[in-house]
Design brief:
The chain is mainly beta. Helices cover 10% and strands 40% of the residues. The protein has seven helices and 26 strands. The chain has a 14-stranded antiparallel barrel with strand order 7-8-9-12-13-16-17-20-21-22-23-24-25-26. A four-stranded mixed sheet has the order 2-1-10-11, covered by helices on one side. The protein has a two-stranded antiparallel sheet with strand order 3-4. The N and C termini lie far apart (48 Å).
């Protein structure tokens, strides 16, 4: 079992001996949004060297173990960072990000000055939970409907060929980094009321494994297992023979500190409420051959906080996604499909380093206004705004509704997170059961190795109401 520690009072937390505290590899980025004017930008976590003072005056030092220390100029280590600064500047949240995925594999692809990653709380909501989409580079907005459509675009459900279906998903997370107790699990499913409308829902649970809390002297405070979950319910219906609409409501819970109280401040579980809106158009209602187009707005909701201070609340990952998919069936038993998804976080872009007014506006930004301004607020203008889009391309071949083979690619700009990977997947159907498996192909070496390398996903789908297409197309 890996060792992860959160030191209260100035030494961050550890993700394995001799490793980066937030991400166990060289070149990782993390945010310090609360340490004063301009000190919100990401800084490289490079083990074993002393970095220069940041613009807000804090100095970050790495000793031979790779543990970071922050100290104000001329001030003692113990006075540098309190638990309040750690949690609210998202050191803990970035532990979630480390165990989740946001700031992945940045390595030395770009200089610090060019990196401006858009981050949010509860990033587990952006992890692809199921193996079918995972095998196609996270493609899912406009693919043919299945039980896991709730995660991508629930408007697809009225065009599902079965009456009802339930999926069980499991993903061991960051196994390539030696983390054995971090995982994402989920349930998702739907029930068609008739040929026009459907009810659906999902549950996601993300465990971050055991974290050992200590004070600045290394004395043990407690051991706690942070976790996050979301539960949602949705309704979708056809607007015409080729167009459908879906809406969902979601409750989100993020328990990162387990009620830890430090210096009179109690850190509670964060709670948020959000909604999804999806549209789906298909030229092929029977899902045999033709075009699908999907659009989804997901996680549109409140901010989330871990204390009673309403001014220290974080954005959740509101997201826009647009997808297109084309399928063609040959000789009734061979079906090939391929598609592309485009996504963008509807979260404000952090302002430029030293922009105190921009930082204040960033912290005060309203919920609805942030969704709108996220399309035009990048400090680098329109060219940087375009960099905030990420892309998935993928393909799937299915033989006689029995065997599927999949492949895909995900791309994100280096300055915005640098998640870039190929994935493969397969699926086998037997009677009412469908087993799916996906694998993320390793990439990079040494400090530039993709931390998601070798990620496996497993999904078991139960056809509870009979799949008309599978029964008629033999």
């Amino acid at each position: 079992m890996s060792s992860r520690m959160l030191r209260i009072g100035g030494q961050g937390h550890r993700a394995g001996a001799g490793s980066c505290p937030i991400w166990p590899m060289k070149g990782t980025m993390f945010d310090l949004p609360e340490f004063g004017t301009g000190c919100h930008r990401s800084h490289p976590c490079t083990t074993g060297i002393q970095l220069p003072e940041t613009e807000c005056g804090y100095k970050k030092i790495y000793d031979k173990t790779g543990w970071p220390r922050y100290s104000a100029p001329g001030g003692p280590l113990e006075s540098s960072i309190t638990i309040n600064q750690i949690i609210m500047s998202r050191i803990i949240v970035q532990k979630v990000l480390a165990a989740a995925f946001l700031l992945l594999s940045m390595g030395s692809h770009a200089q610090t000055s060019s990196i401006n990653v858009v981050t949010s709380a509860v990033p587990f909501l952006r992890i692809t939970p199921d193996a079918r989409a995972g095998g196609m580079g996270d493609l899912g907005v406009a693919t043919s409907p299945d039980a896991n459509a709730q995660y991508y675009n629930l408007a697809k459900y009225p065009f599902a060929t079965g009456k009802s279906s339930l999926a069980v998903n499991f993903t061991p997370w960051l196994k390539d980094l030696g983390l054995n107790d971090v995982y994402l699990g989920g349930l998702s499913g739907y029930y068609k009321l008739d040929e026009e409308q459907a009810l659906s829902g999902s549950l996601r649970y993300f465990s971050l494994g055991d974290v050992h809390f200590t004070d600045h002297l290394g004395n043990d405070l407690r051991t706690f297992r942070p976790s996050e979950f979301s539960v949602d319910a949705g309704y979708s219906r056809k607007l015409s023979q080729k167009l459908s609409l879906g809406v969902a409501m979601r409750y989100i819970n993020s328990n990162l500190a387990g009620g830890q109280a430090i210096n009179g401040v109690s850190y509670k579980a964060g709670n948020a409420v959000a909604g999804d809106l999806g549209l789906f158009y298909t030229s092929n209602p029977a899902q045999v051959s033709g075009w699908n187009i999907g659009m989804a707005l997901t996680n549109l909701g409140s901010k989330i906080g871990y204390t009673s201070d309403l001014n220290r609340r974080s954005f959740i990952p509101a997201n826009f996604a647009l997808g297109v998919n084309y399928a063609r069936t040959f000789q009734e038993v061979h079906k090939v499909s391929f598609g592309m998804d485009i996504r963008k976080l509807l979260v404000p872009t952090p302002p430029a380093m030293g922009d105190s007014l921009g930082l204040a506006n960033y912290q005060r930004a309203g919920i609805v206004s942030s969704w709108l301004t996220s399309w035009s607020d990048a400090p680098g203008g329109f060219s940087e705004e375009l960099q905030e889009f990420n892309f998935s391309v993928g393909a799937e071949y299915t033989y006689n509704h029995l065997l599927s083979v999949r492949g895909g690619y995900f791309y994100e700009r280096p300055s915005k997170g640098n998640r870039q990977y190929f994935s493969l997947g397969t699926g086998i159907t037997y009677n009412a059961f469908n087993l799916n498996f996906s694998y993320l192909i390793p990439s990079g070496t040494g400090v530039n190795r993709n931390p998601l390398s070798n990620t496996l996903r497993f999904s078991l789908v139960f056809d509870l109401g009979g799949n008309k297409s599978a029964k008629t197309k033999k």
